[in-house]
Amino acid sequence: MVTVRAAVVRATLAAVALVLPLVQGPGATAAAGAVPRLEAAAEWTAPLSTRGRWIVDADGDRFKLRSGNWHGASGTWSGTGSTADDGNHHAGENAGRIPLGLDRAPMAEIVAGLREIGVNSIRLPFSNEMIHDTVPVTDDAVAANPVLRGMTPLQVYDAVVRELTAAGLAVILNNHTNTTRWCCGIDGNERWNASRPTRTWENDWLFMARRYQDNKRVVGADLYNEVRRDIWDDPNWGLGDDHDWFAASQRVGDRILTEANPDLLIVVEGINWTGIPVDGFPHERPTLEPVRRLSHTLVDSGKLVYSAHFYDYTGPNHSGATGTGETTDPRYRDLSPAELIDVLNRQAFFTAAERDRHFTAPVWISEFGVGGRGETGARQRAWFENFVDHLVRTDADFAYWPLVGWHENRKGNGWALLHWDAAGHRMGLYDGDDWRAAAWTRLVGASGRTGQVAAVPEWSQLSPDHGDFVQSRRMRALPDWDSGARKAACPDGQRLLGLSHTGNRGLCSDVSASWVPAGGHEVVRDERHVTAGNDWASGYTKLQCAAGHYLAGYSVRGSAVSAALCVAAPAGGLGGAGRTVWFDRGDNRGPAPKGGDFAVGRYKGQCADDEYAAGIAYTGRVGSSRTPDALYCRKLA
Predict the structure, then answer these.
(1) For the chain: N or C, fewer Cβ within 10 A?
(2) φ and ψ at 309, to 5 degrees?
(3) pLDDT (0 to 100) of residue 575
(4) What is the per-residue pLDDT for 515?
(5) In 150-197, where do the E strands start and end?
(6) What is the average per-residue pLDDT within 596-609?
(7) Measured between alpha carbons, how far is 407 from 433 in angstroms, rounded to an integer?
(8) Does the bond joining 633 to the residue before it have cis omega, within 30 degrees of 0?
(9) DSSP letters along 603-634, please?
(10) For residues 438 and 625, what is the distance between their CA atoms, to the nearest angstrom?
């Protein structure tokens, strides 16, 4: 690696907040000075959370993730040859196991450049190997930042996090790979547990979440990048095995919130690829489509963000390969604008577009990008323009890939928005010769929702398909309330409103009433609270809550009802009038039910928004599986 100058004049913090004049490289055009005044990182108050489809700061103001990826710490090595040879790294760019560019420009200059182009947040990839790597970085890798000499990759990562957050930028930690090498193919990084046990992966996340818990501008944990098929097996969403990405992300997300840092957003990317990319064999890019039928319910509401990646050369059924692994399926760039919109909405944007669903959450397009000056393809350019238009149209959160790159004589990979050469000269997006500048300006400067975002009802799915799904912090802290059964409980502040006849699924919400549990709870296994003259399900076994209690959970053994979890409500919170909602022979959810289809293909019953569930009925008749047949719904006060 070429050693570059050790120092460049550091921008002052006041100058960093302004639009800085660009450092012009050779070949810059006369139009280089026409730089739009883009807003850098505006004032905001950590931590971040979500309200429906929006991300908000601690004051309840919308915080749109206008982000980019500063890659390198997860690896740039291609996997073959010496790691010291730049030619064995992606696009010839050797990051040296740390964020790219620290050999060519002072960190403060890079951060100032990031603010200058209008980003307010950084997705900062790392590998699990980086966490444990005790070999110091080479002097060449930090030639422009000599204060970093002798540090391990993790210590350099710490320094980058400090510099970014000190400049007012939010940082989202991204577990990109297991090993420190370029992603993404058949490379030993296909899944979170491809190169290490799931438990080790979880512990690495707890370590990272705790490491930055005192830095409130570290706002998110992006759990794993582009989960995909390895040589033999596909990842899945909900099968309960060692390749179940839904279960793994649900579990580690809850562990991060309960054991490490309750302030972090939990970012879950969909499945990037399944199947064999050969014509005639099943293969697809599921992205977030499985979320419609099975969504996450974290132990803390208002912390979930979904994410997806889109590039012109991939497609809904195209791996992105050329040659081996290439199929005749269309790439995204082959789709008409109308087709592209339909596919994008189906694969990812629906989570933010459809309100009052169990899957409603912000969607963060955490990777998208295209070649810059060297990209002359009409379809590639049209795709980027159309994609940016959809980001603007939907007011979506986004993160461009990548922000930082290398150039030599204004030539190189070209995908980054900012490039530095070996002498430390910067080539910027607004030098006048980058066709992407207008689209980028349109994107970061787009009008969208700002200011206060009102709180909205939460809708949460319960899915004790393969084990306990207890999402109440209060109940997690108490002894097992039905040993041997699979238990499900709503997050604190929510109540059970819906159940499926088969499949064990439930629906929770705080619509019309949100309570902090008043104190006690009761596990009901019999009809002790069914009062005389109020047999609301004659001939059926009724598990009914006592007066002043509401259903907040249930337990099952196999498919059979085992117990009802009843929680005390604040005094005066519950009414009296009730009705029976039968769902043993069809759906019974009212004329316009909210929450979405929480048990696809199953009969479901649901109380109204101004009701609470106070009982579950089932039958033990011969031939019955003792699954839920009816809910007892009562009016709120």
Answers:
(1) C
(2) -120, 140
(3) 79
(4) 78
(5) 170-177
(6) 98
(7) 14
(8) no
(9) -EEE--TTEEEEEEEE---TT------EEEEE
(10) 62
Report whether the peptide linkage leading into residue 290 is cis, meaning its omega lies within 30 degrees of zero: no
The model carries a pTM of: 0.93
- Burial call 388-422: b when 16+ CB within 10 Å, e when fewer: bbbbbebebbbbbbbbbbbbeebebbbbbbbbbbb
DSSP 201-220: HHHHHHHHHHHTTT-TTEEE
Look up residue 383 and give its two tokens: 């795709």
d(CA 490, CA 492): 6
- Measure Cα distances from 151 to 190, 216, 320, 584 in Å: 29, 24, 37, 64
Q: Which two tokens stand for residue 249?
A: 């992300």
539-573 burial: b if 16+ Cβ within 10 Å, else e = ebbbbbbeeebbbbbbbbeeebbbbbbbbbbeeeb
Instruction: Please give the angle made by the CA atoms of 249, 220 and 296, to the nearest 5 degrees.
Output: 30
**Per-residue tokens: 257:** 């919130």
Backbone angles phi, psi at 248, to 5 degrees: -65, -45
pLDDT value at position 32? 38
Q: In the numeric block, which tokens belong to residue 404?
A: 């930082």
Name the residue among 543, 544, 459 with its Cα closest to residue 493: 459
